[in-house]
Amino acid sequence: MNAGDGEPGTVRPGGRTARVRESVLRAAGDALVEQGFDRLDLADVARRAEVGKTTVYRRWSTTAGLVADLLTDMAEQSVPRTDTGSLEEDLRANARLVVRTLTDARQGPLFAAVIAAATCDARTAEALHRFYAVRVEEWAGCVDAAVGRGELPAGTDAREVVRAVSAPLYYRLLASGDPLDEAVADRAAAAAAAAARAGVYVS
């Protein structure tokens, strides 16, 4: 596939194009946090980014394409998984990273806005699913390593363990509104580790 054959917003650029992409994605994130997906407007994003409207429309074409690229960028910028040699320590690091992200003054509202957008836009939902698939796959390695060390039963579904760590944290962000802090993160990690050791996630 040639570079020009990809969907708008999926080509990885270099040089000046990379700088334009960075500016536009930051502007799009700002607009999402302030206004939500339903009021996201490509012309407004271009104004905020101080780039030509034609550039934004040509590269991304739709707000859904812009949000999809924003999620791609967020996945690229995500912190690599920790490898401490201990399942519970690794899961705790994962949970604390999720909490830091969700309580960040910018990242937290941005994730909430993107998740809200995904409920009403199929392309945004697809991009969000890809984003989380990448993150789950990244952290699944620590569970697979724990199986290899004999910490967990053979056949443990690593991806389900990772999902079990973050699920209660996202519930607090999106549903209950209960506080998110390191104690909550540590408890989520400990619960997932205990369930995994008990064989709950054996396929």
TrEMBL record:
Residue intervals of the HTH tetR-type domain: 18-78
Residue ranges the UniProt entry marks as DNA-binding: 41-60
Stored Pfam families: TetR_C_11 (PF16859), TetR_N (PF00440)
Coiled coil: none
Keyword annotations from UniProtKB, A to Z: DNA-binding, Transcription, Transcription regulation
UniProt name for this protein: TetR/AcrR family transcriptional regulator
Keyword presence, NAD: no
InterPro entries xref list: Homeodomain-like_sf, HTH-type_TetR-like_transc_reg, HTH_TetR, Tet_transcr_reg_TetR-rel_C_sf, TetR_C
Keyword Mitochondrion in annotation: no
Domain of life: Bacteria
Residues that span the membrane, as ranges: none
Originating organism: Streptomyces mutomycini
